Each structure stands twice: as C-alpha cells, then as structure tokens.
Amino acid sequence: MATVTFTSPEYRDKTVYAVAGSHTQTILKLAQENKIPIQFECEDGECGTCLVKITSLDNKERMGGPLTEKEKKILQEMGKLSREEMEQMIVDDLPSLWRLACQVIVRDEDIRVEY
Ligand code: FES
Hints:
The chain is an alpha+beta fold. A five-stranded mixed β-sheet has the order 2-1-5-3-4, with helices on one face. A hairpin with a 2-residue loop joins strand 1 and strand 2. The protein binds FE2/S2 (inorganic) cluster (FES).
C-alpha cells in the first residue's frame, strides 16, 4: 500500500493511502477522491494546470511512472523541464520532479505531492 502526502502552503498536509498497481489511478483522481484542491482543467495532459512537484518519502529513487509524451511537451513549454534534464532523465532512468497530476499513475511508493 502506497501513501501519498499532499502538501500545499495554503492547506494542512494530508496523507492518504493509495492502491498501487491498478495502472489507472492518477494522482489527480486520488486528490479528487480525497477532496484535495489540486487545480485542473483538461484532465488530459494538455493544459499544465495540474502541475505538481513529486518527491520520494521512502528513499526509493523512483517517483511515479515514466513521463508521458504529453507531459514532456507541456513541462518543456512551461520551462519546468530543460533539454539537458530530459536527457539526464533518460540516462538516470528517473522521472523529473515536476509532473502533471492528471498523468502520473500511483505506484507502490510513498511520495510527497506539492501543489
Ligand atoms: S489538468 Fe490539464 S494537464 Fe492536467
């Protein structure tokens, strides 16, 4: 069972349990189910409204699954992912810190989501 701690300067931290490995539940869906006010519009990786920063809480290196192509494009457009970071990500096999909540699938790891 994974835990996801949502944190924001405006709200108290909230930690929720997530069913990992369903391969369908996104961070945004989990947030909505738990009434976490992450902003969103398209829910399809097109607008960048749901930008979040994800870090590991259990010191496993990986945070979330690999970036989708839509995510890479939007994060680059928003200046949250440079070409160098993108290349480094491939070398290190690590996702970037900045993600789109509507695109990240919950995995079996404890993470902090800043929104
Ligand atoms: S809600 Fe538009 S990119 Fe996530």
